[in-house]
Amino acid sequence: MNLGITLVPEGRRLFPKLTVEENLLLGAYRPDARRAIGSNIEFCYGAFPILEERRRQLAGNMSGGEQQMLAVARALMSAPRILLVDEPSVGLAPILVSRVISKIKELKERYNLTVLMAEQNFNQAVKIADRGYIIVHGQIEFEGKDAQELSGHELVKKFYLGV
Predict the structure, then answer these.
(1) Edge-to-edge strands of the sheet including 114-118?
(2) Residue 25: pLDDT above 90?
(3) Contact 113, 82 (CB under 8 A)
(4) 156 within 8 A of 126, measured Cβ to Cβ
(5) Do residues 66 and 16 touch, judged by C-beta distance below 8 A?
(6) What's the average model confidence in pLDDT over 53-65?
(7) How far, in Å, CA of 57 to CA of 129, rounded?
(8) Are residues 40 and 60 located together in one domain of the fold?
(9) Contact 83, 6 (CB under 8 A)
């Protein structure tokens, strides 16, 4: 479909026997994205330079952090309007987490994207969040309308900040 909704799944779900570039090109499945392949791939390589260096490497032979960058970049190739991101920090070194979150934020602002992200790393999540929900056992227990409201709530302190 051409709704402009793209998922970056937890666990990456790449095509391991295809190259980095082939995985990226598969992300450009929407008609709008096919028209902008050149600029989208340039943005992805600019956001994650290691992907350009490894564009001919098989995705399955990359490190976990590189695979996560590729999964995010593949999603960006679809020129999404809504980006669904499930646990982008899982398995990444802290410096890579910060970089991935920064790039998602940059994309959000640059393209006026809606981002729905499930993330347990509170300090990284609030860098992007316009609003946040604390979900306990499948129920929304608290909704915060900004980072300050979220960080001051007792559930956040208890579950995410260790206070």
Answers:
(1) 5-8, 82-86, 114-118
(2) yes
(3) yes
(4) no
(5) no
(6) 93
(7) 34
(8) yes
(9) yes
User: How close are the terminal C-alpha atoms of the chain, in Å?
Assistant: 45
**Do 68 and 94 fall within a single domain?**
yes
CA 144/CA 131 separation, integer angstroms: 6
CB distance 134 to 141 below 8 Å = yes
In the predicted structure, residue 56 carries a pLDDT above the cut 90: yes
Of 122, 120, 108, residue with least CA distance to 153: 122
3 state SS for 44-61 = HHHHCHHHHHCCCCEHHH
> Using CA atoms, how far apart are residues 6 and 15, in angstroms rounded to an integer?
16
**3-state class of 137 per DSSP?**
coil
The structure tokens listed for 40 are 């989208």
Contact 100, 88 (CB under 8 A): yes
Residues 74-107 pLDDT 10s: 998 988 889 999 988 887 888 888 888 888 888 8
Q: Mean of the pLDDT values across residues 33-53? A: 90
Amino acid residing at 62: M
**The pLDDT value given to residue 127:** 86
- Domain span holding position 161: 129-163
Instruction: Say how many domains are in the chain.
Output: 2
Is 136 found in the same domain as 79? no
